[in-house]
Amino acid sequence: MSEPSNQPNLTPQFCFNQTALRDFLRISRGAIDDSIIQNLNALMKPAQMPWNSASTAGRQVRPGIRQPIDPQACRTFTNNVLFQSWQTRSDVLNYCAGVALDPNDPDLALKEVESAKERDRVIDERLDPYSGRYYPREARTELLANIIRNERSVEGIIRSRSWSIVSERCGDTGIGWEEALNTWRAEQEAHR
């Protein structure tokens, strides 16, 4: 069974390093969510009946009935691995979203100066039809905010898929992943 991801050292440099941020999210998702079926299969007990060669003598028309997973093992997995991993990724995304709101970003001031210069520039498009084009450079905080927005969207899709598989294999509790995660968070706060 996989272990939840360890939270990286959260600094603004980590957030602005797109490669490090995306690698952390990719590796965390790969270890837990992308391999959720294998993680759940690892929770199952070995077969109770010994192997019988007659079981392979004929073609199986309908798929075999899945062996149920022990409910306690499912709870342990979701509480100690799945939700813990989700919370770690949420903490990283929340921290980096806060960094993206930095009003003192030096790139933001540079962008404003460039925009002011561009407004004052005289353009004669008859001489150079491309001179009227201006592509303002995005400040690094704006780039980070876009990355965080995209990663949160991806996170929602991945969590929904993972939760549907957990619900199918461990028994559907009738609640969505957001409610289950919030319940787990409340329990964690109560134990502190």
TrEMBL record:
GO terms for cellular component: mitochondrial intermembrane space. InterPro entries: MIX23, MIX23_fungal. Pfam families: MIX23. Transmembrane segments: none annotated. It comes from the Eukaryota. Belongs to the MIX23 family. PANTHER family: COILED-COIL DOMAIN-CONTAINING PROTEIN 58 (PTHR31905), PROTEIN MIX23 (PTHR31905:SF2). This is Caffeine-induced death protein Cid2. It comes from Cladonia borealis.
